[in-house]
Structures are given as C-alpha cells and as structure tokens.
Specification:
- The protein has 2 domains: 42 residues, no CATH class; 119 residues, PH-domain like (Roll), CATH 2.30.29.
- The protein is 39% helix and 28% strand.
- The protein has 5 helices and 7 strands.
- A 4-stranded antiparallel beta sheet has the order 1-2-3-4. Strands 5-6-7 form a 3-stranded antiparallel beta sheet, covered by helices on one side.
- It starts with a helix and ends in a 5-residue tail after the last helix.
C-alpha cells in the first residue's frame, strides 16, 4: 500500500516559497497602481506630483555604449521628463547627469559605419557640451530624433504629458527626423 502522506509532502511547497510569491505579487500591484489614491481630500498639487512621478518612470528609450570600445559602458535614458546620462568611470565609480528635456537646446549626432556619437547642449552645460561616444549607429540616430522631436514640441508649447508612450515615441521620432539628402 502506498503512503499518501509521503507524496503530499513531496509536492507541497514550503511556506517560505509562498511568502516570496505573495511579496512578488504585491510589488507588481504597487507598480500598476498609482502611488497615491485620488481622494477628494488630497491636495491638487500632490495629485499632480503623483502623476508626474508615475509618468517619469516610463522610459522612452535606453542606450548603452559598446563594451570593448568603452571599457566601462555608459548609459543614456530618455523618459517623459528628463534625459539621464550615467557615465561609468571605473569599477563602482561614476557620474550621473540628469537634465529636463525642456532644457536641452540642441542635439547633434556624428555617425560612422558602425558607431555614433551624440553631442548635447543644454542650459545647464551650455559652455561644456556633453558627448556620448561609441553608441551603436542606430541608437545614436534614434536618440537624436527623439530629443530633436522633444525640443521642437517644447518650443511650440505642445503638451506631451497625456499622450500614450508608444504613440508619443512614434510622433517624436517622425517630428525629429532629419531630411538631408
């Protein structure tokens, strides 16, 4: 006769695994739900700050420099509100620069057959333009188009906050695309 309790012990999960699964599910729900429920007693500025915070986590594009050419690869991230450049100088040593997209004055791309370079001029580093070298060619071009689209949209006072992310990305790429022969 087969003992059913041994089979049940083999197939059941430990309480620790169940707790880990519950914690993961709660973390996923927190990412989906707004940070602050909209109640009638909540200050409108707090509600607006919550919306901006949620939107700032929507990454429009992310690019990394190519490894053997850049020993410690840098990262460039564009989200709805800002451009972030994380420069890695050595092991556990780096510098992070964040600039609101509306404060970027110009963006220039230099491309070769494989790689590209982005040069940024902002109100904050007007006398010292930032350069990101050894990006893949296609990533450098896409970064330039997105940023140029943002620059044009902000110059014309177009509010991009309520446009869905995928649609906004397509519109900005189309708007920022150059038409040189």
């Amino acid at each position: 006769m087969v003992n059913n309790t041994d089979t049940w012990k083999d197939t059941r999960r430990s309480p620790i695994d169940i707790l880990v699964a519950i914690k993961k599910a709660i973390r996923k729900l927190k990412k989906i739900r707004p940070a602050q429920p909209e109640a009638e007693g909540v200050d409108p500025s707090e509600r607006e700050l919550n919306k901006v915070t949620l939107r700032s986590h929507e990454i429009m594009f992310k690019a990394k420099t190519v490894f053997p050419f850049d020993l410690f690869p840098d990262t460039v991230v564009i989200d709805r509100e800002k451009l972030t450049i994380a420069e890695h100088l050595f092991f556990f040593v780096g510098r992070t620069i964040s600039v609101p997209v509306r404060d970027i004055l110009s963006v220039e791309v230099d491309t070769g057959p494989f790689f590209g370079q982005i040069k940024l001029v902002s109100r904050y580093f007007f006398t010292n333009p930032q350069s990101i070298h050894f990006l893949w060619r296609s990533h450098a071009i896409k970064l330039q188009c997105l940023l140029q689209g943002y620059i044009i949209a902000y110059e014309r006072d177009i509010d991009c906050r309520n446009i869905e992310r995928d649609h906004l990305e397509k519109l900005l790429l189309d708007l920022g695309e150059g038409h040189a022969s």
